[in-house]
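FORM 12-B: Structure-to-Sequence Request
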């Protein structure tokens, strides 16, 4: 994939894959192109060149709402929940991409599943989104994405600004989701917690893949640190 913002290249020919039931971490320093990659997959940014396939279907150039109906859910950086709306209404908005067939019962099923996954959201279903703690807002952002019955979850820096204990809880939930067969592309700036749960990882540097491999291999690779410090060649 190649992506440009005006004259500036944000992604310069990256290739990556995500299999069913896999967590793949996308790591890299500030400005490496991680969020751009997620935004391109979900159709918010159009690539300059390259191809994105979901199963065997080419999806680049498709409208974001169609891509979400095809099963890609994006949890954006900074969560972007609807602050003046209740937890329950935020979740219902996440069901927007569901088709008409059996819509009511599917929404009820999804709500039940999200509340089981995040009991804190169930307790706070009438509370306004903007009054939730940072960790609860992250749960809500993930829960909202799950309402659309996705096959692929794009998670942009879920741990940002959260206490270590809350990050551990979120990461455990991400693992549970992987074990249900969901494919998860996890963007993180800090490699450690992501490599603990990911099966594989790619490290981006200035819009290119600087390193890739299994999490176990990358955790032992000294070039990982160099990549972040900008001294790898
Ligand atoms: P961070 O961890 O800081 O969010 P990132 O790895 O997610 O960084 P991106 O946000 O994808 O990086 O940005 C990649 C490059 O593209 C950066 O140089 C950034 O300044 C640039 N960029 C991102 N969004 C835009 C935009 N809307 N217009 C112009 N340039 C942009």
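FORM 12-B RESPONSE
SEQUENCE OUT:
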């Amino acid at each position: 994939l190649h992506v440009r913002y005006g004259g500036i290249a944000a992604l310069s020919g990256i290739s990556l894959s995500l299999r069913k039931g896999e967590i793949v971490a996308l790591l890299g320093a500030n400005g490496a192109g991680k969020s751009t990659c997620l935004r391109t997959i979900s159709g918010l940014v159009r690539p300059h060149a390259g191809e994105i396939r979901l199963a065997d279907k080419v999806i680049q150039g498709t409208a974001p709402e169609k891509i979400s109906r095809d099963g890609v859910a994006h949890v954006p950086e900074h969560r972007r929940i609807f602050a003046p709306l209740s937890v329950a209404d935020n979740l219902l908005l996440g069901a927007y991409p569901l088709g008409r067939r059996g819509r009511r019962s599917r929404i009820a099923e999804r709500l039940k599943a999200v509340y089981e996954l995040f009991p804190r959201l169930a307790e706070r279903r009438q509370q306004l989104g903007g009054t939730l703690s940072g960790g609860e807002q992250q749960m809500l952002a993930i829960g909202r994405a799950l309402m659309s019955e996705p096959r692929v979850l794009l998670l942009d820096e879920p741990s940002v600004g959260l206490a270590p204990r809350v990050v551990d809880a979120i990461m455990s939930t991400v693992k549970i989701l992987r074990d249900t067969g969901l494919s998860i592309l996890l963007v993180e700036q800090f490699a450690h917690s992501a490599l603990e749960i990911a099966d594989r990882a790619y490290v981006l540097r200035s819009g290119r893949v600087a390193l890739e491999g299994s999490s176990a291999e990358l955790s032992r690779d000294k070039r990982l640190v160099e990549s972040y410090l900008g001294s790898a060649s």
